[in-house]
Amino acid sequence: MPKFKLDYNKILENLVMNLKEKKAIFRKKVLQNLNKKKVNWYKKDKLLINNVYNFIKKNEFKNIMIFIPLKNEANIAPLIKLLREKRYNLYVPFMEEAAFKLVKYRLPLHRKKYGIKEPGNSLFKVKQIDLAIVPILGVDKKMRRIGFGKGMYDRFFNSFKKIKFTVFLERELYYTDSIITQEHDISADSIICSSVKKIDTL
Fold first, then answer.
1. Fewer CB in 10 Å around end: N or C, the chain?
2. How far apart are CA 17 and CA 37, in angstroms?
3. Domain boundaries defined on the chain
C-alpha cells in the first residue's frame, strides 16, 4: 500500500485561501445588500446613537476610539458632536500606508485614501483607550470582525494592546454560521446594531 506524505504547510495554505475566498463572498453579498437597500436610516441611527451614548455613560468611559463614518456606515457624526460637547477624549484612525495610528479628533477634517476623512496628523501618543468603537461589515461564527478587507484594524489591534473594552457598531448586523475568519481577526466584547441578518457563504 503506497504511503503518502502530508504537506502540512500546503494544507494550511489551502485552508487560509479557502477562508479568504469565503470572506470575499460574504463581503460581496453584504455590500450588494447595502448598496441596493433604500432605507431611511435617520431614526435607526438616532436610536443607535442613544444606545451607544447611554452605554458610554453607564460604564464611565472617558478615552474613546471612534471612527468617522463612510457612506454605508451608521451616521455617528451627531454622536461625535455630542461626545465632544461633553468633553470626552476622542481619538480616530489616521492612515499611514497599510496601517493606522490614533490621533485626537479635531477639525477641520481632510478627505484621504478610500474616501476616508481624517483630522491632521499629530505626534501625540495615545496611552490607553477605555472604549474602542469599531465599524464592521459583519461577523462569523466565532464573532470575529469582517471589514472591508484592508486589514488595518487587525494590524492596529495586534500592535496596540491598551484597550479596555471593544464594541462593534453596525446599522444592520450581517453574520454567517460558518467560520471564515482567522485568529488575527479581531473580536469584540459587545455588538450594538439595529437589526440582524444572516448571510450564506456557501
1. N
2. 30
3. 9-198
Task: Pull the grid cell for residue 23.
Answer: 470572506
Helix (H, G, I), strand (E, B) or coil at 165: strand
CB 196 within 8 A of CB 30: no
pLDDT in tens, 146-198: 998 888 999 999 999 899 999 999 998 999 998 999 888 999 999 999 888 88
Q: How far apart (Å, rounded) are the C-alpha atoms in residues 146 and 187?
A: 10
H or E element, residue 135:
strand 129-135
Decide: 158 and 184 in contact? Cβ < 8 Å.
yes
Q: Which of 140, 176, 182 is nearest to 158 (CA)?
A: 182
pLDDT, tens digit (0-9, with 9 covering 90-100), for 14-66: 555 578 888 999 999 998 888 876 778 888 899 999 999 999 999 999 999 99
Report whether 22 contacts 186 (CB < 8 A).
no
Question: Shortest CA distance to 126 belongs to which of 79, 165, 94, 173?
Answer: 94
pLDDT digits (tens, 9 = 90+) for 117-129: 899 998 888 999 9
